[in-house]
Predict the 3D structure of the following.
Amino acid sequence: MSEIALPLFLCLLIPLALVGMALINTGLNRSRNAAHSVLSSLCAASVAVLAFVIAGSAMSGQPAHIVSIGGKAWGWVGGGALFARGIPVSDWHGLLTLIFELFAVSLAVQIPVAGGAERWRLTATCLSTAFLAGVLFPFVDFWIWGGGFLAQLGSNYGLGNGFVDAGGAGVVQVTGGLTALVMAWLLGARQGKFTGEGVPLAMPGHNAMIVLVGSLLALAGWIGLIGAGAVLFYNAGPGAVLMAVINTMVAASGGALAALLTTRGRFGKPDASLTANGWVCGLVAVSAGAPFLKIPEALLVGLVAGVVVVFAIEVVELRMQVDDPAGAVSVHAVGGVWGLLAAGMFSAGGAGQFLAQLIGVGTLAGFVVPVAYGVNYAINRFVPHRVESAGERQGLDLFELGAGAYPEFVTHREDFLRR
Amino acid sequence: MELRIAGILLMACGWILMLAAVVMLNSLPPRTAFAAAGMAVEILGFVLLAGAHIPKRKKRDV
């Protein structure tokens, strides 16, 4: 029983990250879409849990389907039973892993919801989420956490300890972040986001306070995510778990302060939402190697993440012309890639470890983007992702749900003017 | 649409190139070089895909 206590406690912290993400996303949206944003998060989490427990757990579970390539065994996909029936009640490690994965997949699906905010229909959100949680996520989960070919890069080919990702910088953050980018591409920009000449206009979120509170809540969830992942997938002892907690706090603090100073230097005053993004990007980046990094290394990971996220958000919006209301692509995909590569740079595995991390990043990009793009493009042919133009003007709360999040607010008359 | 398909195919090909580097080569330096080439192909595909999603803008009348 004592073996279960620590990982179970850590697992039970993870939902706080879910709450934090939902609050951040909602605060960065306009008030007319607030209820829709939280409901999308709730529905996405619900669909993700069901899709994963029905199908995903089979594809990420044991025994593995093995393919022999060049005389080496490559684990390509799990061969478990549907509805996780292959995990006996006596297998506490298997059950804890399933609990962890359910929370992790619930978190991963929040990221595309953020990328498609203020224009993504609820029905299409649920369909897309079912695919992400039931098919795409389980593949990546198995390759990295389930003993698949990325985890085997060390034992099969001598590349350090194989691809290392204790807290889901790749499995959760990069997978979710790249899917968010795909959704932002397929949905297109919100009405009025870009001028006719392509200049982006500011569309400020409606509540900076819940964005910042959400960021603080996310810290507790991330501590759970990284700590539990380290125990379940890397057999980390209590010392490594405690180090992961310290590194997580250090990286988040470094990320927030770096983003605060960067925005102050560039814009004259610190930017609250970008500072929150820096905090979360620090959490994302340190996820990969928190149990194995030294404290100065974790600080460096956080500082770089905090600076990079400010510039990445500008590149995504100005150069790529992508409308990403919450900065999900920059925070989760860019921050996650930096964290994975940093884990390779600072770990004890040497150059081989860095190559393993590079191959892992290449696998995530080369698998997630094409598959997510193709499937979501196909979904769009049958169930359009984007809400009607009138719904976007009116706000998704009234248009899709029939009631606003803040009924006592005075609605701006311009919201209903024909444009 | 053609640019999008080309971008997606290049990203997938770059990934396969990276995996081929691990399987076919033995020592670390050529593996790293081959994997870096695969990553470059992926980045090229990504740039094509991203460029295909930048909307055409009206030119401002002077």
